[in-house]
Amino acid sequence: MSVYTAQSQKFEGWAEICSSSYLVREASLQQFEKFSMAALKALLDTQNLLRAQITNFTFNLGFSGKFYHTGTEEEDEGDDCLLGSVDEFWWFPHMWSHMQPHLFHNESSLVEQMILNKKFALEHGIPTDMGYAVAPHHSGVYPVHVQLYEAWKKVWNIKITSTEEYPHLKPARYRRGFIHKNIMVLPRQTCGLFTHTIFYKEYPGGPKELDKSIQGGELFFTVILNPISIFMTHLSNYGNDRLGLYTFVNLANFVKSWTNLRLQTLPPVQLAHKYFELFPDQKDPLWQNPCDDKRHRDIWSKEKTCDRLPKFLVIGPQKTGTTALYLFLVMHPSILSNSPSPKTFEEVQFFNRNNYHRGIDWYMDFFPVPSNVTTDFLFEKSANYFHSEEAPKRAASLVPKAKIITILIDPSDRAYSWYQHQRSHEDPAALKFSFYEVISAGPHAPSELRALQKRCLVPGWYASHIERWLVYFPPCQLLIIDGQQLRTDPATVMDDVQKFLGVSPHYNYSEALTFDSHKGFWCQLLEEGKTKCLGKSKGRKYPPMDSDDISVKLLSRSQCGTLKAAAQTGSASAILAETGAAETKIALRENETSSSM
Ligand SMILES: Nc1ncnc2c1ncn2[C@@H]1O[C@H](COP(=O)(O)OS(=O)(=O)O)[C@@H](OP(=O)(O)O)[C@H]1O
Hints:
By secondary structure, the protein is α/β, with parallel strands linked by helices. The chain folds into two domains: 24-282, Alpha-Beta Barrel (TIM Barrel); 305-584, 3-Layer(aba) Sandwich (Rossmann fold), CATH 3.40.50.300. It is 39% helix and 13% strand. It has 24 helices and 18 strands. Strands 3, 4, 5, 9 and 10 form a five-stranded parallel beta sheet that branches. Helix 1 runs parallel beside helix 2 and helix 3 packs parallel to helix 4 (146-156). The protein is elongated.
């Protein structure tokens, strides 16, 4: 990529802008009947004038074939002229009838619509291989309507689209791109020429506002601040009094006169690759709740609901008693969990790894539709969330009000339990190496041993993981459960959990749980004194780890490098105090006080 140094010629105080600037303009030909020969001439004039400033500048025109030849005689003639000049432009498909894709729940209906538009393109010599499409009103692009993405790929082999909606409409400079289902979504900027037809004299606030925007105002800054700008406006803005021509030609002139930026244009596929070369950190999307933003709600399918999202998450870490907590939680009449995953059983494992890229429809499908949105509490337990780098940020974006529950036990016990778990699943490395070898392995140990060591110890770095969750969630939304207490006195823990969640009715766990001496753990009490306990894989029988064992001492030291001093001792209270999560308990107590007042 060539890099151009831009120095302001007249605005003193600007230093250098070390980026090249790519400019792509689209004009959306949404309804052929609105187009006339005069507009076509204006469009070609604009394109030629812009080419003097931007080599190969080419308008990218959208089409919805259903409107072809449905206008007056003059307009139908305009359609034919435009199609006679098909090679002068780039082209992208809208929907066949300009319908909003999120209104189609059925992917095959979307496919049918797109096939009609594609037939139209083929019949009229419109190129079908640009890889770019735009959805009317941003519908289906973000919030993602997965049916649109699938249909676009099937019919058009779409690789790129653009929207003003991610993460939400304003301000333009905060818009980002993302890649979903191999479709690159680029942020689209706003040029100030609105969807409805406007004339220079009728520009909102008066023509001077448009001139200001071009001459060092918002539009100028949009080009300056965004290395890649994509604008879209209606074709009618090139007809009428040629407002499109006026705006873009003056903008290009102003940029040329007052900066050293050199504007360039690129076809969509190259443009998208350039974009993600410049902004690689934007590739991964960050999903939000579609109902939290009015504009998003308006383009979110009525057949989908935002109620199928959890009100709280049990985040782990593994081997601390998360399954016991899960069992106890689902005994509560108002607490509902997700349906099981064929691969990961009761855990959905959405926020931590690649399932996240399946999108929120996939996630929500795991949850029931609550019968009472206020009193029902949906939740999800995935024990790997605790130590995941991504999970806190992703969870805070989608379910910012969710409460977070973690359970801590002595990290040495956790590591040992995890090691035994791996052995019982016949992990070759765990079978080959003793626990002592696993935790004492040095930098030159075999890679399989090092990998096992990492998986064994990293989740035990409690303080740093909790600190990361606290970056994204306030302490009052976090509850830390003492796993030892959960094991010995679950009813008291469950009372605390109920208060923390604010769930009702109050469920009496003292009556509902019983200690099963055969299992050696607390279990659900069923009718006729029967019990429902966790399976053999929870509460395993294995030789105890002697507390004087050298492994324990070593383990405490091995965790020192990354843990704060108090957290290394492994006691939940020390960690609470050290991480600030103690505030959670304090907040909880305050809540208790206020609710009892
Ligand atoms: N009521 C009850 N029943 C059975 N097991 C109980 C219970 N309460 C706590 N525990 C402890 O939970 C440990 C398993 O933790 P997890 O469920 O978090 O493990 S996992 O990460 O889901 O695999 C499990 O660890 P192991 O003893 O090593 O099997 C138990 O010690």
